[in-house]
Amino acid sequence: MTRNMRLLASASVLAATAVAASPAFAAGTAAGTTVTNNVTLDYKVGGIDQNQVSASDTFTVDRKVNLTVIETGNLATNVSPGQTAAVTVFSVTNSSNASLDFALAASQLSGGTAPHGGTDNFNVGNVKMYTDTNTNGTYDPGTDQEITFLDQVGADTSRTVFVVADVPLGRATNDVAAVRLTATAAESTSVGTLGATVTQTVGANTSGIDTVFADTSAGGNVARDGIHFAEDDYVVLAASLTATKTSRVISDPFNGTTNPKMIPGAVVEYCIAVANAAGSATASAINISDDVPDETTYDPAFGIKLDGTVTGSSCNADGTSGGSYASGIVSGTLNDIVAGVTRTLVFRVSVN
Asked: Out of 12, 150, 315, 316, which could bridge 102 as a Cys pair, Cβ 3.0 to 4.6 Å?
């Protein structure tokens, strides 16, 4: 927000020097400060010094209400489908010349262009707000306190606020959920209690502490309304896995490995190829479970090959031995699959 400071001038027509001062802030002299201006006049009559004449003028500094909410880092927040407690980070700054409370609200966009590009097309759930209790800039579950307002925020002071939400399962890469954090200026009257919403003084200047809104329209806000917001995106980065199962005959009792046929006694190789699409997130903990058909018998001599490769559309029996077979089920766990990579599980059976 713009922090223009205006010099306060005495109502007196005489040049003056302020003799009552308060500490200087970027937000300006503190609201309620009494500024006193004294002047003395020396003169002579007939060359003889006369009694000194003095005068003074006093006014009270009014309250300038200025606040900003910014998204920390100005970057979208990448999330995974099904992620819980996904965090976006905001900073709320009181640029006023007085302490204030700030009512907070976390809301979501409903479609339209998201702050960092793309289109808002889903909502996150279980949205909550937390203050950075230990001021380390990182969301710490169990330590940072859930809040609905910021209490007693001093002049020229910033507070970090975490917006925390859950991402639903089933979202695809580049799906976007936009969230908005809004702060509204409130009176700072009692510790632990949100004060009344601040209102701007209308009409002529009074002898008391008047209030002037000074917040700007930056970031799509409405200027001079005592309210400010900023937005961030939850952008989904998902794995996009496809599984392809193929079989090929290796040999039969009559033809051997030369043009074998799938007759009883033939050896058949099964391959499960798992591919992760380009531009996707890395997939991990990939567990495969395959029911061996009743018409076949599992081949323990060949075993199970994991993390093999493919050439074109054909699987290579080049994996590492692993996995297990029990109660008619072949199972195995593949290593992480990054975008654009295919890994396989291969095993063999004989036709009954």
From this structure: 150
Which DSSP letter does residue 156 get?
T
Identify the domain boundary among 188, 216, 236: 236
E-assigned strand segments in 187-328: 211-213, 227-236, 241-251, 267-276, 286-291, 296-298, 304-308, 310-311, 314-315, 320-321, 324-326
Owning domain of residue 129: 65-236
Q: Which of 184, 201, 236 is the last residue of a domain?
A: 236
Q: Are residues 138 and 103 in the same domain?
A: yes
Determine the pLDDT at residue 19. Answer: 32
Low-confidence ranges of the chain (pLDDT < 50): 1-25
Q: Is the pTM of this model over 0.90?
A: no
The three-class DSSP label of residue 2 is coil
Using CA atoms of 135, 141, 144, 148 in order, give the dihedral in degrees to the nearest 10: 130
Phi, psi of 220 (to 5 degrees): 85, 10
CA 31, CA 22: separation in Å to the nearest integer? 10
Amino acid at 339: A
Residue 99 belongs to a domain: yes
Closest CA to 352 of 267, 289, 260: 267
**198 burial level (CB within 10 Å; 0-12, 13-18, 19+):** buried
How far is the C-alpha of 197 from the C-alpha of 192, rounded, in Å? 15
332: domain CATH number is: 2.60.40.2430
pLDDT in tens, 275-296: 999 999 999 999 999 999 999 9
Number of structural domains in the chain: 3
Q: Based on the domain organization, do 343 and 267 belong to the same domain?
A: yes
Task: Kindly state the tokens that stand for 220.
Answer: 């799509």
Host H or E run for residue 348: strand 342-351
Do 135 and 163 sit in the same domain of this protein?
Answer: yes
